[in-house]
Write a structure and sequence with these properties.
Largest sheet: none
Number of helices: 3
Structural class: mainly alpha
Strand content: under 5%
Mean pLDDT: 87
Radius of gyration: 11 Å
Order of helices and strands: HHH
């Protein structure tokens, strides 16, 4: 695992999934697929809500 949890510059919407992927050492695509599947299996709303919360809670990318 690398450094502190932050959003990534490699972003599609807000960089949340890419930031999580960097933290655990996965590719951003793999994390996005896992996040999408988990969100769908949890009836989508909780996954969307968690993403929005992480968007505001996670600090932006380092300069």
């Amino acid at each position: 695992m690398s450094g502190r949890l932050r959003r990534s510059r490699n972003k599609v919407i807000a960089g949340v999934c890419a930031g999580l992927a960097e933290r655990v050492g996965w590719s951003a695509t793999r994390m996005r697929i896992v996040y999408l599947v988990v969100s769908i299996l949890s009836a989508a709303f909780p996954g969307t809500l968690v993403y929005i919360i992480l968007w505001f809670v996670m600090p932006g990318p380092e300069d």
